[in-house]
Design goal:
Elements (H helix, E strand, L loop, with lengths): L1 E7 L5 H13 L4 E8 L3 E6 L3 H8 L6 E7 L7 E4 L1 H5 L4 H9 L2 H12 L5 H11 L5 H11 L6 H10 L3 E9 H11 L3 E5 L1 E4 L2 E6 L6 H14 L7 E5 L5 H6 L2 E5 L3 H6 L2 E3 L6 H4 L11
Parallel strand pairs: 5-6, 5-10, 6-7, 10-11, 11-12
Antiparallel strand pairs: 1-3, 1-4, 2-3, 8-9
Length: 292
């Protein structure tokens, strides 16, 4: 059996669910019934065949509604691996650091292209860090204090999955100065990220190797699953950029979160309207079950 979970940013009506059921029937996918996870917000539709056809039919059908199609068995995942920038937090930290250096447009353009998969991630990261040379270390602290905001639903996602026994891992192409604190604030068990070079209280324009890029993120997923004796099918991976694609493709449920087109195309599910709480609804958790 398969489940299509409809998750509304605002309100999900019975009429909209009926429209989804009718669309599935027209596509040759028979729904066996509906089950509310959260009244007027999230609802499961059960069916037995053609999950890819069901997903293609339902995605974009209803305004403001995200859709996650997956197998009914194993929907509650045992491992969470998540990107940080523009996923667990609302910003790209390197772009905000660049703002303090007065060069945000220049660096943000490189970031955008790298996240779209148009540039090699590692080379683009080194180029951007090089442009930040001589920025005072105190600007990192100021940036964290003034700019870093947790994404909606992030705290509940991590806390609820940890309560249920899941392994949690934050993997970031960003920097330890931010990731270690974000990981601690959200309750991740482990954090992997890049280390900025410092000399005399200033950035020295380098980033330590090996760089945490796309393959490092995927390898972190594989190693975390092996260490916890968890099958990759029981992992949930979420991210927004091209450097998240390998881990998203490797996980049992790989989710593109408000993502770049290349990442969205590679993912098994896309969250485009809702916040990260959608990933709890997708696992069948009603809001009353969330840790807040």
């Amino acid at each position: 059996m398969f489940i299509a979970t409809l998750i509304a940013k605002d309100r999900l009506s019975s009429g909209e669910i009926s429209s989804a059921e009718d669309a599935l029937a027209a596509a040759g996918v028979h729904s066996f019934g509906r089950s509310w996870i959260e009244a007027n917000v999230a609802c499961d539709l059960l069916f037995s065949t053609a999950p890819q056809r069901a997903r293609a039919t339902l995605e974009g059908l209803l305004d403001g509604v995200d859709v996650v199609v997956q197998g009914e068995a194993g929907r509650r995942k045992k491992l969470l691996i998540a990107d940080m920038d523009s996923t667990m937090i609302t910003i790209e930290c390197i772009d905000e650091l660049a703002d303090y250096a007065g060069i945000k447009p220049q660096i943000a353009e490189i970031t955008e292209r790298a996240m779209r998969g148009e540039l090699d991630f590692e080379a683009a990261l080194e180029a951007r860090v090089g442009l930040l040379k001589d920025l005072g270390e105190e600007m990192i602290e100021r940036c964290h204090a003034e700019r870093v905001k947790l994404s909606g639903g992030a705290l509940s996602l991590v806390r609820t999955m940890r309560r249920e026994g899941a392994t949690t891992l934050l993997v970031s192409g960003g920097f330890t100065h931010f990731a270690d604190r974000v990981g601690r604030d959200l309750g991740f068990e482990r954090v992997i990220s890049n280390r900025l070079g410092l000399a005399g209280g200033k950035l020295d324009g380098t980033v330590a190797r090996p760089i945490v890029g796309a393959q490092a993120k995927k390898q972190a997923l594989i190693e975390a699953a092996a260490a916890a004796q968890i099958d990759l099918a029981d992992a949930l991976a979420v991210g927004d950029g091209a450097n998240d694609i390998p881990m998203i493709e490797a996980a049992g449920l790989g989710v593109a979160y408000h993502a770049k087109p290349k990442t969205a195309a590679a993912a098994a599910a896309r969250i485009e309207h809702c916040d990260l709480g959608a990933l709890l609804y997708a696992q069948g958790y009603a809001r009353a079950e969330w840790e807040v």
